[in-house]
Design the sequence.
């Protein structure tokens, strides 16, 4: 019997044993006060801490199995409630979060042995984690964080964005019920019925919160960093995409259009600007238009900028809207076929380049050569160390760009979403901790790395 079959058997047995108790006693995982929710999560953590690893495996297996029927509804409700993004892409993100987020297998034990004994390095839980989820990727972040944090042995108090409250609370309730059926412990995930900025502040100060995991903008990350608690913070990004004259242009065009239009450019990893060497710029733009991009030119660029960027910031009312909605807001004519992405050719200093919009508008800047393009990419990325993509067949240039940009995610010759595990190798991640340095997070990120020493024994070489 392999590991997956064993996990399924354990989950089935536990479900059958606990189903009567579940019918007798149910809980919504939702509370009216921060203290109540965190106290309940802490009591659940203490019980979970006494369970063997196979219990964690059973919990993760149950979440992976039992959430599958809800993925379409989560995508639809997320798009409807937030008014942002594309249902088909949200479904894909939810599925990737559920299937490709590492579980307990991510907690790899290391051992060193020698004449003087043995040292074990293992991962242990922190306790109750305070997790803040954004409105841009609400359900996929909750799924991703749940699997990672529970696999590491923690309990979680979620603080979802009020703009995605209903779908987030519904998902948290579903996960709580799944967990209880799998292991008999209530409140390993908790939340408030009415999440707010004030309740998030209270959570950050609560003595039973051992770790903060913040997926959001600079404001909420900075607030967490000032709390005095260990913080894993996922902040802003402004990912450039650099294309040199050696790139395979038809593939680069398809990849860039796919990445920049994905979920209407809501992912913080998505291409936010295109920097292309002048000698291939016309050919690349032609290929991108074949892939469904629409070129906006002349005075229409000003009209689009005037509605997309207000007082130097992205217009929140248009974040995550479709290209057609953006054209309509700018008073521009509707094309016969709905475009996937809007292209605007601008100068390097244009606000479209410097402002992270989270809209399917891709500013295009021509540069003389690769070196000048790389310098502009460094400027546009702004030292955020988040994400960058590059299309080139020159390995030396790819290596140089990767070393200088120092981003948590660097995608070579692919769409940006490959960096979060969509359509590519690697695990799924939706909390990309660039401000605090952890990078792409997984179960081991949310665990303490401990050292256990035994002297004068257990070296059998």
Sequence:
């Amino acid at each position: 019997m392999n590991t997956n079959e064993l996990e399924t058997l354990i989950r089935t047995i536990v479900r059958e044993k606990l189903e009567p108790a579940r019918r007798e006693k149910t809980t919504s995982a939702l509370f009216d006060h921060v203290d109540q929710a965190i106290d309940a999560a802490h009591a659940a953590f203490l019980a979970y801490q006494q369970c063997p690893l196979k219990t964690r495996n059973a919990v993760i297996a149950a979440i992976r199995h039992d959430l599958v029927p809800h993925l379409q509804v989560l995508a639809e409700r997320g798009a409807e409630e937030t008014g942002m993004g594309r249902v088909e892409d949200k479904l894909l993100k939810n599925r990737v979060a559920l299937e490709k987020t590492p579980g307990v297998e991510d907690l790899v034990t290391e051992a060193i042995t020698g004449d003087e004994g043995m040292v074990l390095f293992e991962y242990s839980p922190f306790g109750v984690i305070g997790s803040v989820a954004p409105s841009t990727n609400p359900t996929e972040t909750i799924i991703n964080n749940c699997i990672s944090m529970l696999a590491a042995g923690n309990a979680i108090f979620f603080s979802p964005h009020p703009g995605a409250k209903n779908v987030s609370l519904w998902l948290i309730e579903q996960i709580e019920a799944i967990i209880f059926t799998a292991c008999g412990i209530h409140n390993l995930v908790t939340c408030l019925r009415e999440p707010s900025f004030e309740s998030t502040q209270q959570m950050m100060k609560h003595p039973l919160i051992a770790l903060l995991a913040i997926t959001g903008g600079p404001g909420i990350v900075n607030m967490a960093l000032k709390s005095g608690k260990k913080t894993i913070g996922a902040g802003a990004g402004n990912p450039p995409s650099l294309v040199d004259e050696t790139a395979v242009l038809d593939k680069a065009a398809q990849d860039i259009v796919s990445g920049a239009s994905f979920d209407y450019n809501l992912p913080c990893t998505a291409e936010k600007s295109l920097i292309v060497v002048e000698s291939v710029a016309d050919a690349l733009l032609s290929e991108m238009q074949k892939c469904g991009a629409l070129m906006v030119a002349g005075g229409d660029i000003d009209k689009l900028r005037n509605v997309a960027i207000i007082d130097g910031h992205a217009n929140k009312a248009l974040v995550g809207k479709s290209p057609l909605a953006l054209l309509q807001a700018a008073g521009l004519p509707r094309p016969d076929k709905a475009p996937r992405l809007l292209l605007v050719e601008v100068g390097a200093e244009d606000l479209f380049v410097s402002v992270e919009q989270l809209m399917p508008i891709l500013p295009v800047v021509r540069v003389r050569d690769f070196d000048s393009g790389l310098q502009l990419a460094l400027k546009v990325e702004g030292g955020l160390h988040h994400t960058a993509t590059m299309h080139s067949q020159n390995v030396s240039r790819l290596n140089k760009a990767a070393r200088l940009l120092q981003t948590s995610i660097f995608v070579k010759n692919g769409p940006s979403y490959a960096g979060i595990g969509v359509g590519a190798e690697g695990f799924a991640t939706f909390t990309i901790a660039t401000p605090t340095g952890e990078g792409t997070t997984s179960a081991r990120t949310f665990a303490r790395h401990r050292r256990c020493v035994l002297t004068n024994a257990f070296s059998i070489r």
Notes: The radius of gyration is 24 Å. Residues 18-26 have pLDDT under 50 and may be disordered. Residues 251 and 413 are 8 Å apart (CA to CA). The first strand starts at residue 30 and ends at 31.
